Each structure stands twice: as structure tokens, then as C-alpha cells.
Amino acid sequence: MKTAFAQSSSEVDEYLQIQVPSVTKHHLEVRAAETREPIRVVVLRALKAYGVTVPDEAISDRRKRRPA
């Protein structure tokens, strides 16, 4: 059974530190380079695809963009 959780705009991100096999980290780095997104975005997209609740606004590149 899935439960919907509402996240308010005032909710803050929390730190989550995990250890993964080196081959997994390498694959995440390659995928991040291919999509030109941070690893954080790649992981959040994967978690959402797995069925974990991830607000759409959390899946964004928070790095500052430089003018071209």
C-alpha cells in the first residue's frame, strides 16, 4: 500500500550518506556526466522510479547557472 506524503515548501533537505560499491559510484558518475546533471538528481530520479516519494521540485539542479 502506498501512502502519499505532502511536503511543504518550508521543509528542508536532510543529509543521507551511504556507501555503495565502486562500480555503482562510477556508473552514477558516468550517468551524471551524460545527462549533465549532479549525481544527486540522478539518484533522486532513480528513487522516484523505484516508487519512493520524491517531490518533483526536489529533482532539480541547484547549481547556479552561468550566463553563456
From TrEMBL:
Superkingdom as given in the UniProt entry: Bacteria
Name of protein: Uncharacterized protein
